Amino acid sequence: MVTLWCVLTLLALLSPEAFGTNAGVKVKVTQKGLEYGRQIGIAALQEKFKTIKIPDLSGSESVSPIGKVSYSLTGIQILNLGLPESKLGLVPGTGVSLSIANAFINLHGNWRVKYLRIIKDSGSFDLAVSGLTISTTIAVKSDDTGRPAVSGVNCAATVGQARVKFHGGASWLYNLFSDYIDKALRSALQKQICPLVSDAINEMNPRLKTLNVLAQVDKYAEIEYSMVESPAVSNSSIDLSLKGEFYNIGQHKEPPFSPSPFSLPPQDSNMLYIGLSAFTPNSAGFVYNSAGALSLYITDDMIPPSSPIRLNTRTFGAFIPQIAKLYPGLMMKLLVKTAKEPTIIFKPNYVTLQVNSTVTAYAIQPNTTLSPLFILNVDASVSAKIYVTGIKVAGALTLNQIDMTLGTSYVGPFQVKSLDNIFLMVLKVAVIPKVNARLQQGYPLPAIGKMNLVNTQLQILKDYMLIGTDVQFT
Fold first, then answer.
1. CA gap 94, 150 in Å, rounded
2. DSSP-assigned states of every residue in 416-463
3. Would you tell me how many other CB atoms lie within 10 Å of the CB of residue 360?
4. pLDDT tens digits, residue range 320-353?
5. What does the alpha-carbon distance between residue 375 and residue 363 come to, in Å, rounded to a whole number?
6. Domain residue limits, the chain
7. Topology given in CATH for the domain delimited by 31-208
8. Does the CA dihedral 354-360-364-367 come out positive or negative?
9. Which residues pair with 449 in a beta bridge?
10. Which is the CATH superfamily of the domain at 214-473?
């Protein structure tokens, strides 16, 4: 039943503490998404209705001209049911409405009667119920953990027509009291429907708790997808505003910047649209930089064996003679470390990453101690390719250019420009592959249960990227 309103999986991540904050991530569920939910959910609801249990019924009625007739109906089972007409709609400001029309149920059971004190008769019967209508509203709210919770309100069920056909026994007799039997069966059936609908809605809640309101990314970071305001339910879509912010695990420290307002375009060819602003990846940069995770030691074994450039004082001594004189024949090690969090910029069809870092060069002494040689300030411009894999966003970086200046020298003055080619090679073959290996693992999108994204397209727009996708639940 949870799939009937799969659109609700992202609907009610209501977090009152976050109100007043701009969204880092926005989600729009379209009419196409609602239609998918209706198709799958009606099938699930139909299976739910197959569990209807009509209890054995008994009673007595005065039937002219023979007097009091006692009857019992036992072993009532559903043979067939159908929900041919259904509609899932939006209730602005509330949630989702479900209406079912012209449903039918066919049942079979046994009957027995006793009249004139001593005369008994029995047989079987078939009950055909048609014109069954059901309507309910699914209200959406937040539980105390910031996850969605749903409840059914205003359920109504009406049985249009019911025809009883008896088999066996004296036909003249059961035709006399068929109206009484018809009424009893219709009443018993009608009492079953709304409780089953309510149960089906309530059964969604344990599954909704699987929504990754707080999704762990790795040992450093987690991402929060709680809502920053109530869902905006219109006549055509459900629009959600999610926090979309990375945090250090166990330490929710806000970055020194906040999301800028943005709006999703009026597209509706996909079931779901997810807009991730530049704030979300930039908050990731803040988190990883704060955790000290954006640093990397580079050693000679990370340089391809075919490269003529080696990380040793002989290679660097060719450009900085003081190094070869002071530290002859030693291997070297580089420490690449961000000076501040990287900045991602989204422009139409283009993503750039500005990185301010330092590179500290060391000579490795025979006793493994490190002797500092120099520190360079490196500003790098990087292009990013972003794509969706599974239910994650992943990426790959390409180094465009670097600008280096001398920060500190422990070996005297030298021309930094002479090292450009060396450090371009080192960054391309040692640093960028390490970063890309992590980016290729991806970062989770908002999801619930076994949700898959299909027919996915990604656009880079000004200040945010837009993911248009259809959804499949298994």
1. 11
2. GGGGHHHHHHHIIIIIHHHHHHHHTT-EEPS--SSEEEEEEEEEEETT
3. 20
4. 999 999 999 999 999 999 999 999 999 999 999 9
5. 13
6. 31-208, 214-473
7. Bactericidal permeability-increasing protein; domain 1 (3.15.10)
8. negative
9. none
10. Bactericidal permeability-increasing protein; domain 2 (3.15.20.10)
